[in-house]
Write a structure and sequence with these properties.
Shape: globular
Order of helices and strands: HHHHHHHHH
Number of helices: 9
Distance between the termini: 21 Å
Largest sheet: none
Length: 263
């Protein structure tokens, strides 16, 4: 358990670091960011999360369910649905505002616009932290080096996509008139939930090992909700955006190669 926690801290710490590095681009870009770059960033993040949901979460969930004598389809689909429901609940309760949107979502609150912008992206990072933490918890349970390699591949993929995601947070905040320093800090802090939730799920997984297949598919459902509900629409893929579409394909291929090659 201690080893799994340390690995989860390292993995989610890396993803948090990459979010911070992406947020730091606010010091180098002009106040405006082109729509094309924004589409690439969001599309790439969506592609990575789709591939990670399949190879790093759903497939291992079914394998774990099979080895535990559980119906593979039940653990995969049941956890997936619960993950979607969890993110839908957060989405409907927490006040948040997506970049470029005029009206906030969630319950009504007298929060600052910048706070709601930050909250919107922080929601994205919750399932990512859970996914990385669960991967290391699964590796600790199996005790096999291949499991740790697969978990590290996931952490690497999540970290890579967090770089453009961090930029996609801080740059819109800068466009809202926030100073570069504050935009960087807000973007960086949006990623702090990844280590928090990553370590929490490791602690939970150690107590309820038989539910590991459900937890893995839960994280997959939560990530897919983020992709379909927010990332792809915000990438404006419905406007025949080849750049955004290629970003999704590139992110998907990268995560797939990482998982297959390292896992």
């Amino acid at each position: 358990m201690t080893q799994a926690i340390l690995w989860a801290m390292a993995g989610t710490g890396f993803t948090f670091f990459m979010t911070s590095m992406g947020s730091a681009t606010v010091f180098f870009f002009k106040k405006e960011i082109s729509a094309s770059i924004q589409r690439i960033f969001l599309g790439f993040a969506a592609g990575v999360m789709i591939a990670a949901s399949i190879w790093s979460l759903l497939i291992p969930a079914m394998e774990e369910a099979k080895s535990a004598g559980q119906p593979e389809w039940l653990a995969a689909s049941g956890g997936f649905i619960l993950g979607i429901a969890f993110l839908m609940l957060l989405d409907s309760v927490l006040p948040h505002l997506h970049p470029g949107a005029k009206e906030a979502e969630g319950l009504s609150a007298n929060w600052k616009r910048t706070t709601m912008l930050m909250t919107a992206v922080t929601l994205h990072n919750i399932p990512e932290g859970m996914a990385v933490g669960l991967s290391f918890a699964l590796a600790a349970q199996s005790g096999q080096g291949a499991g740790y390699a697969a978990a590290m591949a996931l952490a690497l993929g999540m970290g890579i996509q967090n770089f453009p995601e961090g930029a996609a947070i801080s740059l819109p905040l800068r466009q809202e008139g926030i100073s570069r320093t504050k935009s960087f800090v807000y973007g960086m802090l949006s990623g702090i939930v990844e280590p928090i939730f990553g370590i929490l799920v490791v602690l939970i997984a150690g107590q309820i090992g038989p539910l590991m297949p459900w937890l893995l598919s839960f994280a997959a459902g939560a990530m897919m909700y983020v992709v379909v509900e927010e990332l792809i629409p915000e990438a404006h893929l419905g406007e025949h955006s080849n750049i955004g579409t290629l970003g999704v394909m590139g992110g998907f291929l990268l995560m797939m190669v990482l998982d297959v090659a390292l896992g």
